[in-house]
Amino acid sequence: MRHQQRRHCRGFTLIELLVVIAIIAVLIALLLPAVQQAREAARRTQCKNNLKQLGLAFHNYHDSALRFPYSSSGPQSGGSIALGIQPVGTAHTFSEFILPYIDMAPLYNQLNFSAHNCAAPNYALLNNRLYSFQACPSDPFSSGKTTSTGGMFYGPCGSGASTWSTGLMCYAVCSGPTRTPYWSGVGLDCASAGSPAYCAVPNTNHLTSVPSEAPGVFADNGIVSNNIATITDGTSNTFLIGERKGELSLYKGIFSDTQPGLMTGMKINSPRILPTSDGSYEPNCGASSHHVGGAHFTMCDGAVRFVSNNIDFALYNYLGNKSDGQAISDF
User: Fold this and answer.
1) Fewer CB atoms < 10 Å away: N or C end of the chain?
2) Which 8-state DSSP code applies to residue 88?
3) Which pLDDT tens digit goes with each residue over 258-294?
4) What is the pLDDT of residues 121-139, one digit of tens each?
5) How far is CA 185 from CA 156, 182, 209, 266, 282, in A?
6) Angstrom distances, CA of residue 11 to CA of 5, 8, 15, 18
7) Whole domain around residue 92: which residue ranges?
8) Looking at the DSSP assignment, which residues form a beta bridge with residue 174?
9) Whole-angstrom Cα distance, residue 40 to residue 186?
């Protein structure tokens, strides 16, 4: 009698398949946060490098003009004089002034600085472009363009009126504890405007053209141009540039002459920020970022520091003031 041998094909049972799937799901759940953290670490490193390159650009500008650029030469400044290599009285910002020092000299050479940045041919040259030097990779909005409409003193066009489509401004020059007449304390983290005195220093003006009225290296959006010699507190103890969520800037866009500066009167990532009110000046003029726990700052010596949300508020404002004579501890 012939016996036929049957072949038995062994496979996975349903329970075994479910166990394998469960193990894979657990591994993915464990690995995904690590992958996300690695990606954020890379984005954070790139953001830090952007600020480092901006610091170098400002110092190269300083070597050429013997001073730092204006925060803005906006139309509210008036006048027709020139200081260093930048004109006054037309709507232009530091982002334009430093173009030759961030490998964008051809664009800079085509701009007409005798006219504001909404006039021809400037508008055609600057509009509808992304600018990587002002884009923080951690900011989910910085990879795309934003459309905004400017008007008199509000927006990127000064006294002109045009619709802009540009990238966001994620890095702003620091004007320190500047006082503005529009503040009643509501938009500040101080008890009130000018009190405590280190937060919104009395006799200062965010639109000033008088250096003594600008506690920071820059006026918020005025024609104050300081040099290293005026930073008597030390270049390693004074903020030069800081992060700010670009989507919070007034009328957005890189070339807005009304809000290029960063004030220390608001805490870093302040709870007073109004993310649904991106057209409001006061609650969105402080430092902010999409990083966890704080924001990056470039010091006047070119070093980049990550500053915690929980930094002592007085110390934070002292770091924003170039000449308050305060002894700065490590931070």
Assistant:
1) N
2) S
3) 667 899 988 999 988 877 655 566 677 889 999 999 9
4) 888 898 888 899 999 999 9
5) 26, 9, 24, 10, 10
6) 19, 10, 11, 13
7) 40-320
8) 262
9) 34
